[in-house]
Amino acid sequence: MKRFRFMPKLAAAIVSAAMIFSGAVPTFAAEGTTNVFTVYLGLEEGAPVPNKTINYTTEKVSAPAGATAPDLGDLTATFSSTDSPKKVSDLSDTEKLKAKLSDLKRDYYASTNVSVNWSDKKFDKAGVYKYKITEQKLDGKFNNDPSTVRYLDVYVDASESNGEYTYSVAGTVFHENESDPVNDKNEVENKSLGYFDSYNSVDLTFEKRISGNQMDKDDKFLFTLSLENLEKMQRIV
C-alpha cells in the first residue's frame, strides 16, 4: 500500500506561509492633501468677503474591527478679503445647493474648502473609518450653521505587493448624521453639501431727535453722509 508523505509537505507549507505573512508588514501610502468638505458663507448685497478663520474639531467615532483610527486633529476654513463674493442666482444645475444658500436669506456668498493632509495619518486596516466634525461657535457678526455637527467617512483600501500590504485613503463621504448608512464612496446619497454659515455686515443707523411743543410732524431733515477710506474699511472684520 502506497503511503502519501504529506506531513513534510504540510510542514513546508506552514513554514512558507509563515514567511509570507511575517513579511506582510502594514505600511501607509501617502495620499497628500485632499478636500473633505466645503464651508459656505452667506453675504449681504454689497458686503465684502471678510477675513475670517473658522475652526473645527474632530473626534474618532468608529473603525474596522481591530483597527486603530488615527487622529485627524483640528481643521480650519479660511476666508480672505481678497476673494470676490458670488451671486446665489448665478448658480446653475445645483438646485439643492441654491436652496441651502437661499435658506440663509443672503443674495451672495463665498466658499472655501477644508482639507486634510493624509501623509502623516497611519491606517492599519482596510475599511471605513468614521469621524465626528464639530464647527466651533462663531460670534460677533457671524452665524453658525443651524447644525454644527457633521460626520466624515474615510474609505481606506488595501493593496499587496510581494507580501507587503499598503493602506491608502481611497475617498471620503461627508454626512449630515451619524446614523446615515455607509455608502460606496462614489455614491451621492446621504452626502452633506457642507456647512452653511452667514455674515452680517455692519449697518449704519442714525437719527435726529427734537423736543418741545412747537414741532411739526411734516418737517423733514436732510443729511449728507460722507465715507472715507472705504478700501481700508472693507478689510476690517
UniProtKB/TrEMBL annotation:
Cleavable signal peptide: 1-29
InterPro entries found in the cross-reference section: Strep_pil_link_sf
Keywords: Signal
Top-level taxon of origin: Bacteria
Protein name as catalogued: Streptococcal pilin isopeptide linker domain-containing protein
Origin species: Intestinibaculum porci
